[in-house]
């Protein structure tokens, strides 16, 4: 499991460096240099934060022993994150429905939230299949898919919780 952890760490470093190189090249073409630097810095921090979260989830599960045990751990985490996401989605919908605004605004917001929930699931499915495909059929395929699902669920929950907070502050 030590070699697996080192491999994940090295892959994360290479992925982060490639993303930063790509972003740096894109930023150079922007005429407003201070703005491009700020955007580059924010994107770099986001990539680093995302990789740190992903590596932590991987480390915890891969410290358990075999690949099969790691996969089982990741499956449990993915199922738990899916249940948590559904609870946050329901709470967000409730916050929209309880929002002290006109009925037409509440209905529109609820309809758009439901549509975004469905579209998020489609996006997540395709994004995680893309990430899994990068393992080229190797033993890491299911691990990559599950890590992606966990990561995207976490990001979505944070976003929806911020929306709930905004709605609650309006009351």
Please provide a written account of the structure.
The chain has 171 residues and is mainly α. The protein contains five helices and no strands. The chain has helices spanning 2-28, 33-62, 67-98, 103-133, 141-170. α1 (2-28) runs antiparallel to α2. The longest helix has 32 residues, at 67-98.
Count of beta strands: 0
Strand content: under 5%
Number of helices: 5
Largest sheet: none
Helical content class = over 70%
How far from one another are the termini? Answer: 51 Å
Which residues form runs of ≥5 with pLDDT under 50?
Answer: 1-33, 35-52
Order of helices and strands: HHHHH
Secondary structure class reads: mainly alpha
Mean pLDDT: 76
The general outline is elongated
Radius of gyration: 19 Å
Give the gist of this structure.
This protein is mainly alpha-helical and 171 residues long.
Question: What's the SSE blueprint?
Answer:
Blueprint lengths: L1 H27 L4 H30 L4 H32 L4 H31 L7 H30 L1
């Amino acid at each position: 499991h030590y070699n697996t952890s080192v491999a994940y760490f090295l892959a994360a470093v290479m992925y982060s460096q490639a993303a930063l190189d790509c972003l740096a090249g894109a930023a150079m073409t922007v005429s407003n240099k201070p703005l491009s630097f700020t955007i580059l810095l924010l994107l770099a921090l986001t990539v680093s934060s995302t990789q740190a979260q992903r590596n932590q989830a991987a480390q915890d599960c891969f410290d358990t022993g075999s690949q099969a045990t790691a996969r089982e751990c990741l499956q449990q985490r993915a199922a738990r994150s899916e249940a948590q996401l559904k609870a946050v989605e329901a709470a967000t919908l409730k916050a929209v429905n309880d929002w002290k605004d006109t009925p037409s605004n509440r209905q529109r917001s609820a309809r758009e939230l439901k549509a975004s929930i469905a579209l998020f699931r489609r996006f997540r499915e395709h994004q995680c299949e893309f990430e899994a495909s990068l393992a080229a059929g190797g033993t890491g395929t299911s691990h990559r898919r599950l890590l992606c699902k966990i990561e995207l669920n976490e990001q979505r929950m944070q976003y929806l919780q911020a929306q709930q907070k905004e709605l609650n502050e309006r009351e």
